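Backbone geometry tokens:
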Amino acid sequence: MTTDSDITRRTLDYYDGHAQQFFAGTIDHDVSQNVAALLGAIDATPPFTILDLGCGPGRDLKTFSAPGHRAIGVDGAAQFVAMARAYSGCEVWQQDFLHLDLPPAMFDGIFANAVLFHVPSLALPKVLNALYAALKPGGVLFTSNPRGHNEEGWQGQRYGSYYDFDTWQHHLVAAHFLPVHHYYRPPNLPRDQQPWLASVWRKPVC
């Protein structure tokens, strides 16, 4: 029987083995819409403390730290952790999503871009609870995942869970997040050409 830990290890092994190719293939991706969605929803005085969940080689850490925010990365792939530290100059922690050990109420925002879909559905509540606890009251979680019809399984060497908005919202509301807004990407295309579901969520102030 394949456990959630086995699934996570195999997916991380893929990224460790393809770290340089992944960096080259994603360094120029334009995720400015997603960065703006997170920063625009944070109701606090900057600079913000931001967690880049599944930071990969550090592209978005550099984006967040450039204007003066304190950006911290976390990733389960050792190669990505080393690359992100070198590329961004930011603090980066090596933790996989099934064993997150995050400081409580530390972050104004959490940026989970193209990452939470790798969490098996049965493990998702635990992960969301950990993210909720790590946010300050009023803090914001941004998520972007490839959308689907609530199926999950292996795509090559990587595991994915692909939700529609209603099911994704159900998971986030069950974790006590409040919905802010959602949209589909890339922008300005017909819905059938927008494979990504992006959404913004807030931890209640009290």
Remarks:
- The mean pLDDT is 95.
